[in-house]
Predict the structure.
Amino acid sequence: MQQVTLTVNGREVTAEIDERTLLLEFVREVAGFTGAHNGCLEARCGCCAIEVDGEITKSCNVLAVQVDGAEVTTVEGLAPQRLAPVEHVTTQSLAGMYAPLEAVRTRAEDLHPLQEAFHRCHALQCGFCTPGMLMVLKGHLEENPEPTRDGVRHAIAGNLCRCTGYQHIVDAAMEAAEVMRGDAPVPADG
Amino acid sequence: MTEAPPRTAGPGPAATGPRLVGTSVPRKEDLALLTGTARFIDDIRLPGMVHATILRSTVAHARVRSIDTAPARAVPGVLDVLAGAELVGKVKPWGDLMQDLLVGDHFPFATDKVLYEGQELAAVVAGTRYQALDGCEAVAVDLEELPAVVDPEQALRPDAPLVQERIVYEFGEGNVFDRYRVRVGDFAAAERDAAVVVRQRFTTNKQAGAALDPHGCVASHDPFTGVLTLWSSTQSVYMVRDVLADVLQIPRTKVRVMVPEVGAGFGSKAQMFGHEVIAALFSMRLGRPVKLVLRRDEIFRAGTTRNSQVRYAELAMAADGEITGYRDYVVHNTGAMSVWGNQVVHIGTNVGMLPYPIPNVHVDSDIVHTTTAPGGPLRGFGIPQTVWAKEQLVDMAARELGLDPLAVRERNVVDPATFPYRTPMGQVIDSTSIKQCLTACAEAIDWAAKRAAPVPHEGLGLAVSMKYTSCRHPSLDTDLSAVRLRLETDGTVTIYSSDVSHGQSHATMLSQIVADGLGVGIEKVTLAPPDSMTAPFGLGTYASRGAAVLGTACRLATERLRDKVLAIAAHVLEVGPGDLDTGNDRVFVKGLPDSGIYLEILAATAAYRTHQLPPDFEPTLETVATYDTPTEREASDGSGNLSVTYSGAAHAAHVRVDPETGRVTVVDYAMVHDTGTVINPLVVEGQHQGGFLMGMGMALSEDYVYDENGHQLNASFKDYLAVTAPEVPELTRMSEIPAPSTTIPGGQKGAGESGTGPVPAAIGNAVLDATGIRFTALPITPQRMLTALREKERRGVETLRYPDDMPDFTGPRCPDEWPSPTAAEADDFDFDFDFDLDPEEGA
Amino acid sequence: MRAFTWLEPGTTTDAVALLREHAPGARLIAGGQSLLLAMKDRTAGPTHLVSLAGVEGLAGVRTADDGSLVVGAATTYTALTRLDATALGGWHGVLGAVAGDLADRPVRNRGTVGGSLCTGDPRYDVPVLAAGVDATLRITGAGGDREVPATGFAQGPGLVALRPDEVLTALVLPPRPRWDAVAFEKFRHRVFDAAIVSVTCALRAGADGVAEARLTVGGATPAPTPVPGAAARLVGPLPDPDAVAAAADAAAEEVLPGGATAGEAVRYRHELVRTLVRRAVTRAAADLRRS
């Protein structure tokens, strides 16, 4: 057993763990953030991608003991105060109109531009690969504020998606980049 | 033909407020998935939960001498161990239980014989996953390996190893599990009268669904109530519940199946699996919750795959390009187990004949066992395999006759003067725009101009297909879905359905229907998670049935709910129900949309103030509706209208082949679809793009590669070449030409699988155009491509069929007369390259 | 994964001592991108993992006094891609380009140069580049320090010439004047995949063309393989396309004799060697012409 301390989404977590514990397992099972997913456990599908000290990492292929002391950000850290989805609005005044993003924004102003763009562009279907896609693209767009479609495709070459054909994911990344650059106003709705 | 339900006119749009059906409403599902708060199967943690893993066979075919679980019990942390022998006579075998063919070939573990690599031998449950794995390693297994049979045609030979020894099949013998035949018209006459008959042996690959969310479950048995609760990553709640209850011989009411978020399925989760039984047994034995989530290599080896086929296909064409006949002998590889296996060839062949109303069709098929992973449903359900052969034959015949492949297709696609139109195969086409789709698709790829100015190593190819929208399976005589709706006392609406959404956007799509039908804001509508204790009985989510069949059930339930609401409002307002309308969350007198009674008032009245209800009104506002499609069972000649309506797909591929590496790049791709009335255009576009992705994988890279011992060489995402983003062309040349279904009340057609059907054939036709090589095997890997190019150069020919070159063959009278094939060599994946050194040395 | 003990030495001396103390089950781990895969599917089961993460001086790149480039074994691929032209000048920049075009960013962030060299996977890029430019490897062990040529270090899949109690400390690229042009070419199925075949071509200019040529092929054989016969054909005037093609044919035959008539998998690699040698030589020769 080995004592490991990680700061996960700003929360310090210390635990005595089996040395075999993968970073993914620490984040999911010890820290309790299940947004990073286990899709293959062989560093191929990218569903487990998270940031370790600001560097994107496939957490299924790193031991927790290897990164003892690190700061870790998972998809939950992209919109920190967002704990449960808004599903239920019961005021009568909303009748007949539909603007879910506005409804969301009243509670969650800081959804990451990528999250909003994924929503607008229908860049997720089953949603299992989405947390990894978001984290990898976040890093890519931060380093490449003016991305190309081809560059985005290469950035997610290690992230599998079986649902979307990737088209809407690339669309969303390009839209999010505009917002992140400040070139585009945050769209009012879908 | 069965009549459509009497009520074809829907409730109509709410008098005020935007109509949501037909608009790209952003999905209700997204927020939880985007923020990491969605719960998939592996995210479930229950108090006291323990972890199970399965020990699987590392050989494909073997006699079980002994399996000693005692050493595993001594491993620290291990709580219980199960193996095959002790379960015999205690749990019931299963297999296609919902069909007439009750073959019972499935059991939680191999007992006397192992039939494929990855079959379950034993299972261990322990405090942690690592302890369970340690326990598995300690189980002592003694197997006597038997010869494997990987090739389905080898499996047909009388001296082939027998896979299923204990089961006597009603319609087959040896390794033949079942047979299928179609006799429509007179192919011999068509052959006699044809200007050309083209013939070719085609083979297709075993493709994985490879849904990223692993198969898995959590079982929790409550010893006090006797209720077994199973959370499972599945596409069908009731398929799992009913089969599991039957296998365990406990009442249906004592099994509760609940489904968390499911990270896709594509058909690979449309059945009950052994791991669900194993987890249930462990939980019942221990009285603790048990989690069992499969690893990726287990899913590859023991999950289901797209059935590979060998097709000896022939197509007869008249001089003017009319397709007059189709004959085929299909060897259909169903793997070691029958999982929807015979259904795939029946439906894939029947519907695969579309969009051509071919008058003479003659098909024989042997559905055969091999010692490979079970074949089963996968996006397209047999249609991509049929279309791969048929649409290449269409091109071959057109070329022989000097006709434009586009013109030949335009001449032949179903385009009747009046609807409904019954084809010779029996499909009832209630509407279609396939001809317009074809023309538009050719324009989108710039067919005429590009063909007039060919570029070296580049080529264009077309393919068309139609896809069933849900299906009355030949031996599954039902095609229903159901929805229950409840108008809650605050004016919100809950939808209950057992058809699992695993990417299809049910919460959004159904809410759009309810919002329009009831005049309620979409933010007030919620889809309850699938739960067999609360949801009405339905078949599940597969076969492109969500929007059309489930959507229709939802529409009917909405109409019934609206009728009840109007009845109360009419009573309160003292007007007739016909004078009322709904909208803005209200019921109002027509013409006065700003007045009226809020739905929440009416709902509260129905629940809390029942004395104010109309006389004889049954309190509460809850309705249920079931929709079973008016489809037919298959006739003895193989004909029949198996689907309620048919969506159309016309695809055009533009490929480039690198003559130095063999890489085939899809540089451009056009898709024009008829998906009927589209509920959510952006969602349907996403379905088509995803369908294309799976078709592209089938065409160019994805395959199960086995060695001769039945060992799968690429059971990982490292070696299994799932398509990644850089390989996919920009999928922007897409459009819809909707021909709304007239049978489905809302006009919908199935969207999920429409985009897959034509892809391999369109790419194959484009590869021929680019290189002169007609590929007869899938996938078209760089290694095969380059080998074919060199072979063509060596022979000095203009065109070459590869790997099966049989252009001069004049035709068989029976399958035995076909020339023996020149099989493609095992593929070019990096692992199959023999190094001289012993890899163990470096370990 | 089987159970193991986690050890974190601070110096290479301590690391070597731990390897000796816990032989034969002890293994070094740097980024772990290859080793952890093997441990997870239980094809590797070390009893002790000796981490190089805390060992001083193993990560980083510096130019030595003689102009050679010393790349610490624990330097990640991403760290290499971040170096500018002053740190990775001239053909040394090929190392950065190769490091930036393998696997994907998450793997490049963890994977190290030393891990790539010591895994002994014939399809990895860095060993083919290292052998291709005639680099050397610095090794320290109980028996002292030694320096060996990169060529010959890998001896087969999973097999390298490193004793169980030794640590690879650095990859040393020769000073820039050693070569005037270096080109690396590879073919892989998908961007993320390891190469099926890769080729390094290094050329040194002479008075009127090529004074020295070095061709190294990876992926086609169990370890990176130099093809000196084919390379020798490039010496002399700058090769024209015919000469390049002839050298490519010779290289394919040298690395996979009889490959043109072998089974499909070997034949395909034979073809890829031809293609990639042609591409690499063409590119390197063009660089030479420009310089």
Chain B touches chain A through 82 residues (CB under 8 Å). Residues 1-17, 826-843 of chain B have pLDDT under 50 and may be disordered. Residues 53 and 105 of chain B are 22 Å apart (CA to CA). The longest strand of chain B covers residues 646-657.
